[in-house]
Design goal:
With 171 residues, the protein is mainly beta. It folds into 2 domains: 6-139, no CATH class; 142-170. The chain is built from 2 helices and 11 strands. The strands form 3 sheets. Strands 2, 3, 4, 5, 6 and 9 form a 6-stranded antiparallel beta sheet that branches. It starts with 7 loop residues before the first helix and ends with a strand.
């Protein structure tokens, strides 16, 4: 999005492994990306934890496919993730999304107050992250896959389509 805020790491992320990494510690550490039009891949290669470089380097990646599928791949995880300190930076893995609304402030009419609404989060069990492991997220079917409201309503989706009077359409 076009809005950057300090709560970004708490509410909006695609994180195979979020921790206090220091990519500038070693000349061998890199963060690379590739986009071939059908998959966007980000790889953290030989990155070290800040102040804990003696634990070894981490290598992992996130692959975002145009189909909506997301794959986290873990090549080198030198220590159990549960042993990584969250004192300086949150330690987590998963997906989260939110949106922000600017509301008029009741105290100062010409100013606006930011309100962040987190609407979905998938947290991975970090005890299961290890070397040579992978996690795959597969998107659920949605109404957007159908060409008309009729085909959506008559399909066997995993949710109930309902009529929205405000939008004058099925949701």
């Amino acid at each position: 999005g076009d809005v950057i805020h300090r709560m970004l790491t708490a509410t909006q992320y695609i994180a195979p492994l979020m921790a206090n990494f220091n990519p500038s510690y070693s000349h061998n550490s890199t963060i690379q990306y590739l986009d071939n039009g059908t998959v966007f891949v980000v790889q953290w290669d030989k990155v070290y934890l800040q102040g804990k470089e003696d634990l070894g380097s981490f290598t992992f990646q996130a692959a975002l496919h145009s189909t909506g599928r997301i794959v986290f791949g873990y090549k080198e995880i030198p220590v159990p993730v549960l042993q990584i300190s969250a004192t300086q930076h949150p330690v987590k893995a998963g997906l989260s999304d939110a949106f922000m609304i600017l509301n008029p402030s009741p105290d100062v009419p010409e100013s606006r107050r930011r309100t962040i609404y987190e609407y979905h989060r998938v947290e991975l069990d970090t005890s299961r992250i290890s070397s040579l492991a992978a996690v795959e997220f597969t998107p659920l079917p949605t109404c957007l896959q159908h060409q008309s409201c009729e085909t959506c309503v008559t399909s066997e989706l995993t949710f109930n389509c309902t009529w929205c009077h405000v939008l004058q359409r099925y949701l």
